[in-house]
Amino acid sequence: MLNTLTFIAFLLLALPGHSCPHVEHSRSFPSYNDALEIARSNNERRVTRQVSAPAKTAITNVRVFDGEKLLPLSTVFIEGGVIVPYASEATVVDGNGGVLLSGLIDAHSHPVSVEHLENFASYGVTTAMVMGCYPYDICHSLQNHPGLTDIRFAGQGAVAPNSTHALLGAGVPLNETITSPSQAPDFIARQLEAGATFIKMIAEDVGSPTLSQETMNALVVAAHAKGVRVACHAADYSAVDRALTAQTDQSHHVPNDFPLNSSLISRFVAQNTISVPTLSIFLQFDIGGRPDGAHGFDVATASAGALNAAKVPILAGTDANNVPGPFSLAFGSSLHTELELLVQAGLSTVEALRSATVLAAQHNLLFDRGVVASGMRADLLLISGDPIANISATRDIQRVWIGGVEYTTVSGN
Fold first, then answer.
1. Gap between the Cα atoms of 311 and 328, Å rounded
2. pLDDT averaged over every residue in the chain
3. Which residues form the signal peptide (predicted)?
4. Quick one: three-class SS letters along 63-75?
């Protein structure tokens, strides 16, 4: 039985031409050469974009979200791309009594182009975790664009030969698939050499080709030996079970076949495993219609709520992607949808805000961001309303700063 979350978003980046035969709507992807052309264009944009240097800025008359609550009206100073206690002769920006958040972090996304980074930035998403890329040129070309969303990426996801994810997009080269636990150390080394800061592995549903439990275990051991974390795609009950058995650090998606029961949830708690539910993409599937007619969104929402009730840390991730057709999910705006869906699933508004700021930073080892505090990177989102009273207020964007550079063409929301 093929799980619905064989859907696109997992590594669908701009890979060589291949149509996925496993979903109702087949899709064609760019060729390998087209992918390299996209990377070339991204690199060219990096060179030709005109970006101002980080300015001394005093953001006055704002209530800061400190990760737990809103503080009284105050002033936040930026200098040299970081938050500082005070900056003399700073340009004053009146916050008009609004709320200043740390820039949002999308913990699961698939950007391909500079335009996607601009979309992220326009919605206050200042950091994005990119869940796998091949060819590696794509991810490299998205790095180091001053004033645009900062990315961290996994390299090629660990997949079994002839598995659904191995066949998506262009298809994973056979020498990049994993057939034995003995291959794990070399696979991890290749991803780190390509610049990955974490590892992604894919647990397919039972009944289709997938990584063996022994191989999954070996991948986590090899990654941990190198001091890097592992995110596991696990979108059905059996896959989550196997991800937890492998001691993965993060479980991405939640089951859309059967809700998590107390036994699996207790293992999340005991192992300190993080959940990234990606409810947005489940909602997208219900809107587009699933081939089996089931409502995976309802099942996924129930699991997310149960995890939160058990105090499992939850990070906001979307699976935003550029795949054509009903599976496409917008970059930037979808993270605001994710926050709303998490609140509907049972998170408090404060918990939802933490899932896209301080927790997302901490659990992805990004210790220079995630909170509005002196010495931290000046990734900031200024909004008009009160997101603790109404999480949808995160959409009321006034201004965005990334590394101290103001993003000036914020799109309408």
1. 31
2. 88
3. 1-19
4. EEECCCCEEEEEE
Residue 159 tokens read as 């997949």
Closest CA to 153 of 228, 44, 255, 47: 228
Residue 47 phi, psi dihedral angles, 5° rounding: -75, -40
Count CB neighbours of 269 within 10 A. Answer: 13
298: which 2 tokens? Answer: 């309802």
Residues contacting residue 276 through CB under 8 Å, at least 6 positions apart: 107, 108, 231, 250, 251, 252, 253, 314, 315, 316, 317
Tokens of residue 377, six digits: 């990177």
What tokens were used for 273?
Answer: 């495993």
Is residue 290 a contact partner of residue 296, using CB atoms and an 8 Å limit? Answer: yes
Total residue count of the chain as it appears in this document: 413
User: Do 108 and 319 form a contact (C-beta atoms < 8 A)?
Assistant: yes
Is the pTM higher than 0.85?
A: yes
Q: Model confidence over 142-171: pLDDT tens digits?
A: 999 999 999 999 988 998 876 677 666 555
Closest CA to 325 of 292, 289, 295: 289
Q: Which CATH class is domain 4-51+98-407?
A: alpha beta
* Span 277-300, average pLDDT: 76
Indicate the SS3 state at residue 181.
helix
Residue 162 Cα distances to 204, 209, 210, 388, angstroms: 11, 6, 8, 46
